[in-house]
Amino acid sequence: MPRKVLLDSKKIDIILNRLACQLVENHKDFKNTVLIGLQPRGTFLIEKILEIFKKNYPSINIDSGILDFTFFRDDFRRSEKTLKASSTQINFSVENKNVVLIDDVLFTGRSIKAAMSSMDSYGRPNSIELLVLIDRRYKREIPIQANYCGAKIDTFKGDRVNVVWNENSDKNVIYIEN
Amino acid sequence: MDKLSVDHLLGIKYLKKSDINLIFKTAIHFKEVINRPIKKVPTLRDLTIANLFFENSTRTKISFELAQKRLGADVVNFSSSSSSVNKGESLTDTVNNILAMKVDMIVLRHPNPGSPLLLSSHTNSCIINAGDGAHEHPTQALLDCFSLTENLGDLKGKNILIVGDVLHSRVALSNIYALKLLGANIKLSCPVSLIPREIESLDVSIETDILKALKWCDAANVLRVQKERMEKSYFPNNREYSMLFGLDTNKINNIKKDILILHPGPINRGVEITSDIVESNNSIILDQVENGVAIRMAIIYLLASKMNFSIN
Q: What CA–CA distance (Å, rounded) separates B159 from B32?
């Protein structure tokens, strides 16, 4: 399959730092804000963002967790495949908190809808925001948009956007396959 | 493997090791779900499940019902004492009538061994065996093994003792099948009169000296003495049974090692086990009950995922 690099590691770095800055701008000391990475791919992105916070804003303590929303998806029993769950690690209540959901690619919006429904299991948040690295424009099936977005791209049906995280951050890359 | 090899849960006999591993992996996630502030997910909101209990049950029935409700399914309960079964209706007719009301899944407890198998071949529905006579109780065995795995890790090579009324126990047979699939060594300890014929053909050993058996094992699953299934007397009296095979502090202190204690319930305190052992730190009896809901959620989820959705 032909591959086209959308963002190389340098650009990804700049974007991650910008997203972290935007979060600090809006949430200041994060006293009432929690970050939640969405399984499976959002877990890598939240890790990167937390690393930036640790390095650039060491005085800020952030509550963070990982959310799996498999049991809230709307496509159960719609294919031959069994939907496989992953682990959830949320050791706090989100009651009255400002929640920032973090995922790598925003596509149809259905995952985000399921994730938002799933959040209800942990309390009623004061607000929910969405941070994504890539927004695949014009592909939404439900009216959902990101509050923080790394890059917006236009894709065709059948295209695959892959975010590849490497241990060596110089090799991080986002490419599109069609 | 990401789906079960079976369309019904009729017994552990029909499962593969990969099925058990898949059920355990899924149950870990459901255990997290049932410990959330809000314990319900909407996954099965379009399914209706009927619990048909032709025998008495407390924890299995409640556990199944909780599992189904926490998965978001609609649930109808049926008990034979207040049904048309008393007017002479056959099991298949009863179930087909219930299925005609658009029920998708049946959980069946029945005194006759093999009744879930019969239903699975005469009805068009997914069947889960919740205990059929003295034959199998697959969900109990799965939750027992899941609880053991949580505490002992991989069961391969672990020594598991089953103590008590093996002859009348569906839990024993299902546990033997499941533990064998997972690679555990199994020993039975009970009065000779309560040992089923040909049981050694299942590759289990028998030890009638309870102290020797307890010293050998990593965990002991204590079975209830099922007086209601005994048409004749299999041992002189409860006191003698308790002295020879009941788990008490003396016997546990005597073996000088820590072993896990399991019991599927209901417990006859003072007969097969004393209260201090039930409430000791080595007892995982209440963990079994909690895990029962998670395991049943996993089984229902995995079986339901094989029933493709149809808008018609």
A: 29
Whether residues B243 and B191 share a domain: the answer is yes
- Residue B240 is encoded by which pair of tokens? 């003698």
Interface test with B, best of A77, A83, A89 (most B CBs within 10 A): A77
* DSSP codes of every residue in B228-259: GG-SS-SSS-HHHHHHHH-B-HHHHHHHTS--
Of A71, A81, A121, Cβ closest to residue B2: A81
Q: Are residues B120 and B164 in the same domain?
A: no
CA within 13 Å, CB half, A99: 28
A52 secondary structure, DSSP code:
H
Residue B175 is part of which domain span?
Answer: 138-289
Q: Which residue of B has its CA nearest to A93?
A: B37
Residues 6+ away with beta carbon under 8 Å from A146: A106, A130, A131, A132, A135
CA dihedral for B3, B7, B10, B15, sign (positive or negative): negative
Chain B CB within 8 Å of residue A71 CB:
yes
Q: Is residue B65 part of a domain?
A: yes
Contact A84/B at CB under 8 A? yes
What is the CATH number that goes with domain A9-73+86-157?
A: 3.40.50.2020
Query: Quick one: B282 and B298 in the same domain?
Result: no
**Does B45 contact chain A (CB < 8 Å)?**
no
User: Any idea what the CATH number is for the domain that residue B182 is in?
Assistant: 3.40.50.1370
A86 with B41: Cβ contact below 8 A: no
Name the residue facing A88 among B32, B38, B43 (closest C-beta): B32
Strand partners, A84: none
**Can you tell me the ipTM of this complex?**
0.89
Residues B208 and B272 in one domain: yes
Which residues of B, range 53-82, sit inside 8 Å of A by Cβ?
A: 71
Number of domains chain B contains: 2
Do both B116 and B161 map to the same domain? no
pTM: 0.93
A169 touches chain B (CB under 8 A): no
Contacts of B16 (CB under 8 A, 6+ apart): B5, B181
Which amino acid, one-letter code, is at A165? W
Considering the domain architecture, whether residues B145 and B126 belong to the same structural domain is answered as no
**Are residues B127 and B44 part of one domain?**
yes
Can you give the pLDDT of all 178 residues of chain A as single tens digits? Answer: 688 999 999 999 999 999 999 999 999 999 999 999 999 999 999 999 999 999 999 999 999 999 999 999 999 998 888 999 999 999 999 999 999 999 999 999 999 999 999 999 999 999 999 999 999 998 899 999 999 999 999 988 788 999 999 888 888 999 999 8
Domain ranges (residues) in chain A: 9-73+86-157
